[in-house]
Specification:
Distance between the termini of chain A: 56 Å
Number of helices of chain B: 6
Distance between the termini of chain B: 56 Å
Order of helices and strands of chain A: HHHH
Radius of gyration of chain A: 29 Å
Oligomer: heterodimer
Shape of chain A: rod-shaped
Helix content of chain B: over 70%
Number of strands of chain B: 2
Largest interface: A-B, 38 and 41 residues
Structural class of chain B: mainly alpha
Largest sheet of chain A: none
Largest sheet of chain B: 2 strands, antiparallel
Radius of gyration of chain B: 22 Å
Strand content of chain A: under 5%
Chain lengths: 125, 248
């Protein structure tokens, strides 16, 4: 019994510091969990500091997405021409379609269009 | 003097022969091994002490982990974390290869299209296999956007398929072209310095400009080396996100 009361006394003696520390821990854990669990806003264009590598990375992406689309269209068109002997129609049509696909790629990469899947929280929405 | 010479593949010693194909240990393979060793040593040394307050090496390892994990979580959600080993391996491999390539007299493995295409195809096939494995034919919904009038749906679907097929192309060509172009530019400007330097005192004065440019370009190449690894990793995350959550 005596031991019990002494313990409570001890606890009473350093209340201010302990309470403040626990509160700070609580707030820290709260902030940590929030920054961990809340990745959604990072997908948009907003709220990114300019020193973030994402902006330059996006620049690198944009430069090659269009070219890739056109190249794939041209390759398919050329292959169809070669195999089916419908030159030049395969090349004409697929080059144009590839161009469209490239523009689509660029618009997706730039965030003008929503990307295919609706993001990390997609199915839960 | 030849700016392309640095990309030459040299056979160091032959390993085996299968049919008409000779398998050899090349300088490319050597530098891949070096990169693997660097990554292994870095991670092993960094995790040896396991201190609560990390030392320098441990900070590097923890930062790279947090960086890749954060990128993966923010693009593919927490379900994407099952692909963390893949994305982390790709990021570290490409990053170390790129950075090693900047050191003079080394070989830049990522400046070869065959390497980047293999890595991009690895991601592409992972997306395809995982998408069909978990979602079955629902994965094909990825190509059929919702809310499109039926009469242009075939055309739009076709364009979506083309756009999907262009992914490994842009994924691989971007890394390859950036590394190739950067290293050629560095070599050309470095060549200017030696050529002008051979002209005597006037040449030395003239060589200051390309020398300064070479230094600046080296710094830029360091940035590009990191950014290209980052772009490769983040695009991997985005593509994996499509495999995990194909459209509605």
């Amino acid at each position: 019994m005596a031991g019990d009361t002494r313990e409570t006394d001890d606890r009473e003696q350093l209340p201010a510091d302990e309470a403040a520390l626990t509160a700070r821990f609580g707030r820290l854990a709260d902030r940590l969990s929030r920054s961990r669990q809340d990745p959604a806003p990072e997908r948009g264009q907003a709220a990114r500091p300019s020193s973030d590598p994402t902006a330059i990375a996006r620049g690198f992406r944009l430069s090659s997405e269009l070219v890739a689309g056109v190249l794939v269209g041209a390759a398919i068109g050329w292959a169809l021409d070669h195999w089916l002997g419908i030159s030049p129609w395969g090349m004409i049509i697929f080059l144009l379609l590839g161009f469209v696909a490239g523009v689509l790629n660029v618009m997706r990469a730039a965030g003008v269009l929503p990307s295919r899947a609706s993001g990390p929280t997609g199915p839960k929405e | 003097m030849d700016p392309i010479h640095q990309f030459e593949i040299k056979t160091l010693f032959p390993i085996a022969r299968i049919g008409a194909t000779e398998l050899a240990f090349t300088n490319s393979a050597l530098f891949m091994l070096i990169a693997l060793t660097v990554i292994l040593l870095l991670t092993l040394a960094a995790t040896r002490s396991r201190a609560l307050v990390p030392g320098r090496l441990q900070t590097v390892a923890e930062m790279s982990y947090e960086f890749v994990a954060g990128t993966l979580r923010s693009t593919a959600g927490s379900e994407g974390m099952k692909f963390f080993p893949l994305v982390f391996s790709l990021f570290m491999f490409i990053l170390v290869l790129n950075v090693i390539g900047i050191i003079p007299y080394t070989f830049t493995v990522t400046s070869h299209l065959i390497i980047t295409v293999s890595l991009a195809l690895l991601v592409f096939l992972t997306v395809l296999v995982y998408g069909f494995w978990t979602h079955g034919l629902h994965f094909l919904k990825l190509f059929v956007p919702s809310g499109i009038p039926i009469y242009i749906l075939p055309l739009v679907t076709f364009i979506e398929v083309l756009s999907f097929l262009s992914r490994p192309v842009s994924h691989s060509v971007r890394l390859f072209a950036n590394m190739l172009a950067g290293h050629i530019t560095l070599k050309v400007f470095g060549g200017f310095v030696t050529m002008l330097g051979a002209l005597g005192v006037v040449g030395w004065l003239g060589a200051i400009l390309p020398l300064a440019l070479t230094i600046a370009l080296t710094a830029l190449e360091l940035l590009v080396a990191f950014l290209q690894a980052y772009v490769f990793a983040i695009l991997t995350c985005i593509y994996l996100n499509d495999a995990i959550h194909p459209g509605h």
